[in-house]
Each structure stands twice: as structure tokens, then as C-alpha cells.
Amino acid sequence: MPTLLADALEPLVPTAVQLLQEAVTLNQPEGLGMLVYLVRVLPLLNREARDLWRKEYDAVALLTLCDYLFHSGHRLRYLDGVLPSDGNDAASWTEPLDPVLMPAPQRVIALESIFKNRATLAETLVREERLGEGDVSAALQFELSIVQEHLAFKQHASYAQYFGTCQRVGCSRPALLIPPDVDPDPDDAPSEAEYWKCCRDGRAPPPTSSLPSDMSFCSHGCYKAANTEFKRLVKFDIATPVCQTRRGRGPTPARLYQAAIKRNLGIARELRAKPQVQTKHYPTSMANRETMLREQTTMLSVDLGLLYAAQHVHELPARLRPDRPMPRTEDWRKHASCYLNAVENVRKVYMKHGRGELARGGTELWLRRLRDQLLNIF
Predict the structure, then answer these.
(1) How far is Cα 300 from Cα 238, in angstroms, rounded to an integer?
(2) H or E segment to which residue 54 belongs
(3) Domain for residue 240, yes or no?
(4) pLDDT tens across 217-251, in order?
(5) Which residues pair with 174 in a beta bridge?
(6) What range does the domain containing 31 cover?
(7) For the chain, first and last CA: distance in Å?
(8) Does the global pTM surpass 0.85?
(9) CA–CA separation, 310 vs 349, rounded Å?
(10) Residue 135, domain member (yes or no)
């Protein structure tokens, strides 16, 4: 009689959790990393393994303890390494505990101090468990301590200044509102991203954060899920055609302006057939097609307006031309700091006279108004 896969997995899942618990308690480092990895990936094998794993309540608390005990994983967000509990995780951060367990109010401390305190506590609890002190396992005590610390922050009057809710769709765990200060992904040029962000929002911060790097997430896992989906479905890649030069001549503001016109005309045709974006992790309010189209239109129009102004300023007599850098290379947007003031000035004119339409060059009203203020742009 054939053996069902669920029957074969049923003893495997609890045995793996039990072996990990014993290895941590007895301080057996040999093979500990593989045991942690096994317990972590078991629910990813198939549905049967996932259902069996969820019945092991100690698995989540044990993996959280190991994450801080062995200093593994990311440490940039408030709940990095703290695995979500099954079903009641949201209530853990909002519902009060028994009066005996409720902590006193405490002011929010630095994220580095929070992680350091958790790691120290994890080592202390494991050491006490190894000596036979206490009736509750170190993993459950550690998980309770994290919830208690958070509730101590929550009772303080300054809590709302530091904490919000994770912005990944479907997650309601607490997140620090201050985004982490980290190096950008290698695929993103920081100065060019700064340029396009200024085209979209100006110098002032945007009223709603639409880039995952600007949002608040409870953990690196939630950030990674939202950011991966953003790059795959939502991110707007702007590719400007290379300037068509004759006899090897370098780009000029006029040639760069013509390339931007060609880009905007091509994108205008593509946007007509662009479908509504449906997302699973990235906040749906920002994935709304109309919102994204407005942002894209503003970015592209301001960029074209800047090149329009640069072209006409470049044609002025040398004595009237301002002593400011002008776009003269294909990668001029990477030098964002040179043009942010000009971007801000162009954007003001577009927001006042552009009527929310995609700039395509020619005799548009807002470009005529822009030409009247050429000497104030750069």
C-alpha cells in the first residue's frame, strides 16, 4: 500500500523542531546551522509540510531566538528576525497582556540599542535554560520579552512619533517610521533617482511615499516582497533615446531636447494601452493607474521642460548666458545636484500652466511661459 506524503512528513517536522530545541539548550554547535535552515525551509516544501509546521507553535519562537542568538539575517528594521506568529500576530502588538506581565511605559530607544538588548537577552535566557532555571522555554520567554518591550513603547506618549503600521499589503505589524539609512541597490543610480524624484515632487518630500525605499516596513522580508513586486510590476523605467549625432559630434542641449521629445512621444503611445496594475504586496493605493500616470507625466514633462530651457539658454549670447552647468552628455542626469534648482523652477511653471498633460515640445502654453523666464531657470 503506497505511503502518503503527509504521512511521511508527519514525524519529520516535529522531530526537526525538537532536535533544534535540544541543540540550542545543550549548546551543541555542530550542525546547528543546518538544523535552523531545515526548520526554516520545511513550510516551503509543500502544503502538507506547511500545515504540519504551523501546528508546531515552538517553531516560530525558536527560530526568532536563534536569529538573535547567532546574529544572522538583516538588522535594518524593527522586527527583523522576529517571525510572524500564526493568526494572532497583529493582536500581539496591540492587545494588553495580563496585569502581571504588562510593563511600565518606556521612551523609544535607538534601533541599534534594541537589537543589542535582544541579542544579550537571548544569550542570557539560553544560559539559564541550560542550567535548569525557569519553567518556560527560553524561546517563549524571548518572544514574550519582545512583545513586552513593544508594549512599553506603546504606552509612552511619544509612541506615535516613532511607530506606524507596516505598509506591505496584508501586514499589520508595527514598523519604525524612520526609513533605514542604507546603501541603494547597485541597479539604482542614487543621483539619477534623486533627479527624477525632484522632477516628480520638487524639493519638498512627497505627500505619500511611492518608492519602497521611502516606506516603513516592519522587517526586511516585507520590504523585499514589496520592493521586488514594485520593480517587476510598477516601476517606471525611463529610457531616453541616444542623441543622433553626425560625424561623431557630442551631444548638445538641443540634441538632448529632441531625444526627450522622441521619448515622450513614444511613451504617450505606450501609455494608452498600459493596463491597470494589480499588486499583492505593494500598496494598491499607489499602484493605481491614474496615480502612476500623473506622476509619470509630471516627471517626463519637467525633464523635457528643463532641456527646452537649456536649449534656449545655450543659444543666448555669451554675455547673457548664466554661468551654470548645462546638459551636454548622455548621462547628465547622474549629476543631479547641479540641476535640482533648475528642476524646481521648471516644475513650478509646469504645475501652474501644464494642465497635467504630457509635454511633447512645440507651442504648448507652459513651454511659452517657461521661455519668458529663461534667465531665472538656471
Answers:
(1) 9
(2) helix 47-55
(3) yes
(4) 999 999 999 999 988 887 766 777 787 666 667 78
(5) 165
(6) 5-165
(7) 82
(8) no
(9) 15
(10) yes
